[in-house]
Amino acid sequence: MKILMILPRIPYPLIKGDKLRAFHHIRELSKENTIILCALTSEKIHPEALPELKKYCTEVHIFKLNRIGIFINLIKAFLTGLPLQVGFFYNAKVKKSINKIIEQSQPDHIFCQLIRVAEYVKDVKKIEMTLDYQDVFSKGVERRMQIIPFIFKPIFKMEYKRLLNYERHVFERFTNKIIISEPDRDYIPHKEKEKIHIIPNGVDTGYYSPREVEKKYELLFTGNMAYPPNINAVLYIVHEIMPLLIKESPNIKLLISGANPSKSVMRLQSKNVHVSGWVRDIRNSYAQSRIFLAPMQIGTGLQNKLLEAMAMKLPCVSSALANMALNATTDKEILIGNNAEEYVKHITKLLNDESYSKKIASKGYEYVLNNYNWETLTQKIEKIIN
Questions:
Q1: Which of 45, 221, 324, 351 is the most exposed place for a label (fewest CB within 10 A)?
Q2: Helix or strand run (H / E) with residue 128
Q3: Taking residues 208-225, what's their average pLDDT?
Q4: pLDDT of 338-369, one tens digit each?
């Protein structure tokens, strides 16, 4: 089958959740299908991206979105009622180019990742299409409204309402719909949302595997450190959890590891907190740490960071919100905190009881191996498409 994939970002390097998901879908689907890739970007193209993607795609089309064009399209979206999330990624010239690619290549199927690119195929007929909602943007915006400054609330409220309408509207355009978790599916505002297939993220357990190295840090948080839910999580760790831990263990160390740390994240550096920024091999960050801590307060979807940490046999302490998508068994495969005191209690027990720490880590490791395999998960997508 010839599949045209339309993505809002170039799926390489693998520094964001949507890139990671798209890359592995492409890699696995390419084993039995021909893949034509159309990807948008407003960033500089990584020198390794095209050579890596051409291993799996017969054609790779990259469309640059410049700042002036983005600004104009955001204004158009504001005036026409489109969500700004959609307007940011939509460009009329790019749509013409994609239409031409569809006409020339005659794909058997079109696969769109995220509602951000749904406008590019709104006029397509006679070709079956699949939409990967992945996350529910409306719910993510609703959660962020709780923490943003008052001055921005009207804009977020407007965007929330537009996203709700758009997520409902695009449902009808696509033959098949997939999403990352059951809780996310329940947030889709459509009466037939049960028809959406659950396809969680996976983890490359050949790449992320246990390592025995010297531990330099007691605690670790990883992720794209320009992403608001991740910023919110590390601010919570440093301001709410770390002071309580430092009272008992003055030399405790936290590593915050991930690309693009914001100014607010960089300001967290101290004797007890190290902000590494981008690292070439994130596995080193996992291997050098004793506990993975992810107290996610906002955001949606499945946290890849938890899958990677579990695959590397780290005991994980996280929030009920993050575990809604992961669905690991609490107090067996994962530990859940509801407030700073509960997080401290879990961390302290893991640090002081090595056998308990190994037990939680081993159960989490087994859970990921049995439930989050990219090959098996992508095969489900292939069956849906066929």
A1: 45
A2: strand 128-134
A3: 95
A4: 999 999 999 999 999 999 999 999 999 999 99
Q: Omega into 149 within 30° of 0, i.e. cis?
A: no
Count other C-beta atoms under 10 Å from residue 79's C-beta: 9
- CA angle centred on 231, ends 9 and 45, rounded to 5°: 25
Residue pair 176/130 in contact (Cβ under 8 Å)? The answer is: yes
Cα 367 → chain centroid: 20
Let me know whether 11 and 153 are in one domain: yes
Q: Per the structure, how many domains does the chain have? A: 2
Confidence of residue 303 (pLDDT cuts 50, 70, 90): confident
CA distances for 141 relative to 220, 288, 299, angstroms: 26, 34, 8
Residues 332, 366 contacting (CB under 8 angstroms): no
Statement to judge: residues 267 and 367 lie in one domain: yes
Written as one string, the DSSP assignment of 306-354 is HHHHHHTT--EEEEHHHHHHH-PPBTTTBEEESSHHHHHHHHHHHHH-H
The reported pTM is 0.80
In-domain check, residue 237: yes
260 lies in which domain range?
217-371
Q: Is residue 127 part of a domain?
A: yes
CATH label of the domain that carries residue 312: 3.40.50.2000
**Burial degree of 347 (CB within 10 A; 0-12, 13-18, 19+):** buried
Relative to beta strand 109-113, strand 2-7 is parallel
Identify whether residues 156 and 60 lie together within a single domain.
yes
User: In whole angstroms, what is the distance from residue 328 CA to residue 367 CA?
Assistant: 7
